[in-house]
């Protein structure tokens, strides 16, 4: 008789054993059969996390204080399995040459183990088809809840501390609400929802002894984010065609940077721009090793595996293997691996402060920091989108801004209301048009319309100047990199036009920005009264 516990329990415990050191799953089986099992003080396998997440940094340490697995055995088809983590801590740093070599060796070893395990599983036989459908649905609907995530990054004298009070990861339905979902065995659309609450980031400087003398105010305080991930592909042609869309949205982003933190922020920005995810190194074949040669002869359907294979192929392998009729291809569907990421912020406030150390005699002579506000920049309706289809040599970047206000603060603030604002725009009355056709647009369904066209003429026809200013009436910008089609050129002109190569087109549209150049802002520091004022309006 088929017992669901005999299939689900080893799978769940194998996930824990994969990421946790010194884990004995036989000690937890009985507790899990009762519906819940809890583990305390777990050390994580850092090399596995670096490989799975393709992290551009090296994890120095990782620790979980408490991990619980809850399985509703009597309602498995209607309620998800829950994994709950209470307090997880990480320490990271930039990778050095030794860590890169260690990661490359680990990747090579893991590829060999994975292929060996696949062969053994095929020889042992799989579970019944009926049980396979149930197991795959249960695994695909696992939800993850993390409470109190702590990440510390140390680089020279810079210490970055990030804390997340709550993070929820779950499957979602078409309305992007957490729910139990069924996955079609062939034509797959998978939606995942990641919700982050109370994200706080601190940036401090440590001395030569490695200590932080005075903790500064957080750069980002209690921010809430929502990330939506949509994958669409055909399970029989996953190696040649797929679509991945990722969207990140926040209602408000309040960033505060002091004069002591500003140089550190610039160093971190430069470092982030230079960082790239760890690349999978190709394994050289050894002709003297028959096992390695046999492995090297295995080529996935459709040629090489696509980029980001660790995520896409992991999702594909969770699906049941059925021999069913392949649906007819959609004539409007893009052929190839399309990837799209969008970042959206309804409001972003940036405040710059001057900071200086002083000794507080009232508090026993301890050293503290005094802050004086200088400037505030408020941006509204911001978006950044990037889409790519490598098979067509197509890359598109779009960005926009719906409102802008820049004003001095503190001693630099003018008494004249007209002179208080340096740069401003008319308030947008079009609502949240900046999220149009994104994963956060309630009126745009992915299954109803084609979200992107990978043809330049068609792209320009749909994304006109009027539409770009509709999404972001203040500032709109896009870049399109594409391969121009080869014309049927005349033999005499063939030497000039036979290879048009890649073309890059830029557009920058702006309207309704007013710049105020005021003497009051320049003279407020010296205490002199303003004498002149000029205003420039750009349309």
TrEMBL record:
Residues 281-295 have a biased composition (Acidic residues). The keyword Ion transport does not apply. Residues 4-208 form the Chorein N-terminal domain. Coiled coil: none annotated. Residues 101-123, 281-305 are annotated as: Disordered. It comes from the Eukaryota. Pfam families: VPS13_N. Keywords: Transport. PANTHER family: INTERMEMBRANE LIPID TRANSFER PROTEIN VPS13B, VACUOLAR PROTEIN SORTING-ASSOCIATED PROTEIN 13B. This is Vacuolar protein sorting-associated protein 13B isoform X2. It comes from Drosophila pseudoobscura pseudoobscura (Fruit fly). The gene is Vps13B.
């Amino acid at each position: 008789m088929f017992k669901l516990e005999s299939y689900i329990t080893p799978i769940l415990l194998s996930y824990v054993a994969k990421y946790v050191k010194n884990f004995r799953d036989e000690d937890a089986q009985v507790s899990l059969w009762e519906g819940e099992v809890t583990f305390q003080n777990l050390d994580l396998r850092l090399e596995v996390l670096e490989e799975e997440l393709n992290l551009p940094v090296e994890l120095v340490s990782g620790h979980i204080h408490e991990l619980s697995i809850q399985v509703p055995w009597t309602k498995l088809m209607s309620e998800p399995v829950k994994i709950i983590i209470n307090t997880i801590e990480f320490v990271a740093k930039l990778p050095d040459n030794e860590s890169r070599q260690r990661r490359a060796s680990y990747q090579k070893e893991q590829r060999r183990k994975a292929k060996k395990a696949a062969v053994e599983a095929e020889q042992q036989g799989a579970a019944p088809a009926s049980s396979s459908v149930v197991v795959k649905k249960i695994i695909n609907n696992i939800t993850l809840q993390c409470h109190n995530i702590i990440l510390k990054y140390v680089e020279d004298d810079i210490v970055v501390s990030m804390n997340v009070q709550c993070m929820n990861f779950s499957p979602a339905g078409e309305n992007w609400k957490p729910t139990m979902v069924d996955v079609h065995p062939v034509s797959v659309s998978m939606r995942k929802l990641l919700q982050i609450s109370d994200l706080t980031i601190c940036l401090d400087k440590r001395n030569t002894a490695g200590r932080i003398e005075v903790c500064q105010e957080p750069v980002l305080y209690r921010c809430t984010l929502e990330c939506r991930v949509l994958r669409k592909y055909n399970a029989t042609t996953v190696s040649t065609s797929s679509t991945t869309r990722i969207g990140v949205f926040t209602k408000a982003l309040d960033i505060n940077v002091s004069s002591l933190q500003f140089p550190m922020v610039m160093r971190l920005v430069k470092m982030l721009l230079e960082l790239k995810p760890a690349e999978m190194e190709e394994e050289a074949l050894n002709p003297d090793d028959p096992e390695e040669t046999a492995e090297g002869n295995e080529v996935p359907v459709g040629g090489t595996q696509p980029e980001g294979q660790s995520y896409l192929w992991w999702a594909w392998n969770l699906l049941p293997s059925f021999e069913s009729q392949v649906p007819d291809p959609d004539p409007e569907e893009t052929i190839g691996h399309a990837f799209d990421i969008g970042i959206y912020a309804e409001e972003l406030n940036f405040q710059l402060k001057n900071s200086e150390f002083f000794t507080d005699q009232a508090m026993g002579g301890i050293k503290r920091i005094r802050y004086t506000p200088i400037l505030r920049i408020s941006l509204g309706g911001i978006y950044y989108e990037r889409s790519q289809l490598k098979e067509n040599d197509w890359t598109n970047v779009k960005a926009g801004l719906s409102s802008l206000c820049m004003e001095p603060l503190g001693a630099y603030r003018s008494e004249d209301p007209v002179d208080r604002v340096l740069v401003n725009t008319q308030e947008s009355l079009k609502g949240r048009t900046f999220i149009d056709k994104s994963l956060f647009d309630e009126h745009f369904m992915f299954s109803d319309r084609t979200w992107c066209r990978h043809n330049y003429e068609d792209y320009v026809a749909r994304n006109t100047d009027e539409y770009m200013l509709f999404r972001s009436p203040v500032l709109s910008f896009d870049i399109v990199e594409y391969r121009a089609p080869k014309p049927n050129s005349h033999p005499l002109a063939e030497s000039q036009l036979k290879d048009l190569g890649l073309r890059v087109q830029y557009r920058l549209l702006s309207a309704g920005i007013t710049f105020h150049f005021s003497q009051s802002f320049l003279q407020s520091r010296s205490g002199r009264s303003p004498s002149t004022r000029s205003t420039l309006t750009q349309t």
